[in-house]
Specification:
Helix content of chain A: over 70%
Radius of gyration of chain A: 20 Å
Mean pLDDT of chain B: 74
Oligomer: heterodimer
Number of helices of chain B: 6
Strand content of chain B: under 5%
InterPro entries (chain A): RNA_pol_sigma-70-like, RNA_pol_sigma-70_dom, RNA_pol_sigma70_r2, RNA_pol_sigma70_r4_t2, RNA_pol_sigma_r2, RNA_pol_sigma_r3/r4-like, WH-like_DNA-bd_sf
Order of helices and strands of chain A: HHHHHHHH
Pfam families (chain A): Sigma70_r2, Sigma70_r4_2
Strand content of chain A: under 5%
Low-confidence stretches of chain B: 1-8
Shape of chain B: elongated
GO molecular function (chain A): DNA binding; sigma factor activity
Family (chain A): Belongs to the sigma-70 factor family. ECF subfamily.
Number of strands of chain B: 0
Mean pLDDT of chain A: 84
Shape of chain A: elongated
Radius of gyration of chain B: 39 Å
Keywords (chain A): Sigma factor, Transcription, Transcription regulation
Chain lengths: 190, 118
């Protein structure tokens, strides 16, 4: 069975008949964006993986009552987000996550690398201060490279709202870096 | 100005290693085995019936039409059962009320009271 060119609806029909290959194809199709979203709710990658696994299992259990003419993706991400919110409430906090994991450290020059480390640290602190939705939109679009429309569907927002969140997040991060800029300019003047 | 721009300081925190994704997908699918088996079993008993569902549907519809066309059942002695008897509950009082002599109509009662004159 070549599942790559098969629509979500067909995979859903096969998976609800107990076809593991069809279910596996659905999992592989949405695994990457699912982990990215789950990581917004979970404090670690391990926690995010558990959330994703739970979401896929719940979706599979609910497949018999799912109308396959409806799109699978928004339905699945609704399950994932609900699980994520519940998990985050249990943790009593939103994950700020180890943002530094997503920041490059490839500078060869020690001075340049020190400068980058400072920038990364400021961005990390800036990200930690952002409201959860701004942080999620910024991370998913600017760090994970997902399309704005795709992120809108993943987070159940309009594309315009995602743009606004990204814009505000960038503005906040720009402010976080402004002090660093000013210090550098003063040093150059001396 | 320092950049908060695309790609200069950021990279995905999601792993790049293809094997990581394969392993995670396999873990999710393997642990879903009991659910998949349950779906497969549920499918097993109704699937053969589902294959014949159009024929079963047509047959049921034809049977319903035949029952309606054939009309009410007839008593063995040849006397047709009245419609009132058919719809009445199967107990003596109800039978008596439904199939008893019809009550006098109101005009007849008025005529009796006035001595039969208008």
């Amino acid at each position: 069975m070549h599942v790559d060119n098969v629509s979500d609806g067909e995979l859903v029909v096969w998976a609800r008949r107990g076809d593991g290959e069809a279910f596996g194809a659905l999992v592989r199709r949405y695994l990457r964006p699912a982990l990215a979203v789950a990581w917004e709710f979970a404090p670690s990658r391990d926690g995010a993986e558990d959330l994703v696994q739970d979401a896929f299992h719940r979706a599979l259990r609910a497949l018999p009552s799912f109308d396959e003419s409806r799109p699978f993706r928004p339905w699945f991400f609704t399950i994932l987000r609900n699980l994520g919110r519940n998990a985050a409430e249990r943790e009593a906090r939103w994950s700020t996550g180890p943002v530094s994991e997503g920041l490059r450290a490839d500078g060869a020059d020690p001075e340049e690398e020190a400068h980058r480390a400072d920038v990364r640290d400021r961005i990390r602190r800036g990200l930690d201060l952002l409201p959860p939705m701004q942080r999620a939109c910024f991370r998913l679009c600017d760090m994970e490279g997902f399309d704005g429309v795709e992120v809108a569907e993943m987070l159940d927002l309009s594309a315009a709202t995602v743009r606004v969140h990204r814009h505000r997040a960038r503005a906040a991060l720009r402010d976080a870096l402004r002090d660093l800029n000013d210090t550098e300019e003063e040093e150059e003047e001396k | 100005m320092n950049n908060v721009n695309e790609g200069s300081q950021f990279e995905s925190r999601l792993p790049d290693d293809g094997r990581y994704w394969d392993d995670l997908a396999a873990r999710i699918v393997d642990s879903a085995e009991p659910i998949l088996r349950q779906h497969g079993q549920r499918q097993a008993w109704w699937h053969p019936l589902a294959k014949w569902s159009p024929a079963i549907g047509i047959g049921a519809a034809a049977a319903a039409i035949l029952i309606l066309v054939a009309g009410p059942p007839k008593v063995a002695g040849g006397n047709q059962v009245s419609f009132e008897q058919l719809i009445s509950p199967q107990e003596p009082v109800a039978q008596a009320v439904v199939s008893g002599a019809p009550a006098s109509d109101i005009s007849a009662m008025l005529l009796v009271e006035s001595g039969g004159e208008r």
